[in-house]
Amino acid sequence: MIVVLRLGHRPSRDKRVTTHVALTARAFGAQEVWVSTKDAALEKTVESIVTRFGGEFAIKTGMKWREAIRSWKGKVVHLTMYGERLDDVLPSIAKEDLLIVVGAEKVPREVYELADVNVSVGNQPHSEIAALAVLMDRIADDDTLYMNLDGRLTVLPNPRGKTVIDNTKEKGQGRARPR
Amino acid sequence: MIVVLRLGHRPSRDKRVTTHVALTARAFGAQEVWVSTKDAALEKTVESIVTRFGGEFAIKTGMKWREAIRSWKGKVVHLTMYGERLDDVLPSIAKEDLLIVVGAEKVPREVYELADVNVSVGNQPHSEIAALAVLMDRIADDDTLYMNLDGRLTVLPNPRGKTVIDNTKEKGQGRARPR
Predict the structure, then answer these.
(1) Nearest residue of B to residue A146 by CA position?
(2) Taking 80 as the threshold, does the pLDDT of residue B174 lie above it?
């Protein structure tokens, strides 16, 4: 099981970035995202995607991060540009239950201590979304990215346009939506 | 050479997400990011990172995207959740000069036509930052993520804290910044 814990979310400023964190977690195979700040609008945004595109993904906001980290039974992996090299850490975490911690701009020192590993996806400043995606992509099975989530809408690969199947239509009526 | 072209940037709304796109492009080995909307503040933010952390990365805003795509000599790869599967496309693009196009919410139909390939990193809605990172990570050499960019500041992998070398200090004075 993989859960992503997002720290330091400020609802007004981080709305879009934290939404990206949550949707990336879902698309790359996490079961839940936990956000340390209460944010009902964020929950609604993410739940709306789950309703339309399927899967069992859950979002919880207003989570107490210290308790969440301390009570986690598997490995706690903190993504930070200051951490160890991804390649060095990957073999020790790839098959574990993971709590992946991603911060916003400033992460409390305590997080570095509580985590089992502090890992960098490159030692350059970039994006917690990018770091999360690459870590999860390196861990995932080959079919994770294209798993069937049995949603109301299914997108099929298309070399030149958009193919969206609406699975609520009767068989034979479900068709690619023209664009 | 890899250049990332960001479409549909709205300076107020997309400030942080486009900054993440630009910094991800830089960290994963692109030489430039082009943004279709003029945004001097965004340029300044990205240039400040380059000044501190090194490398030759450039940002250009206010780029005419149609002309940029049409005049590109290598492959044009458009990242979209509607596109072909990444695994299917990767062998044909991995060694080329790439213009990687990432949109904001709504991308003009014309982009799907102008691109050499429309490629998805999963057919689920998530994040153009995540998609960009995974595509570039799959293409990159093993050492790209930890390349030495010869900047004023160098971050070194640290299992439990932060090691930041200030290379402007005299030898012997450059040291890990305590946190």
Answers:
(1) B122
(2) no
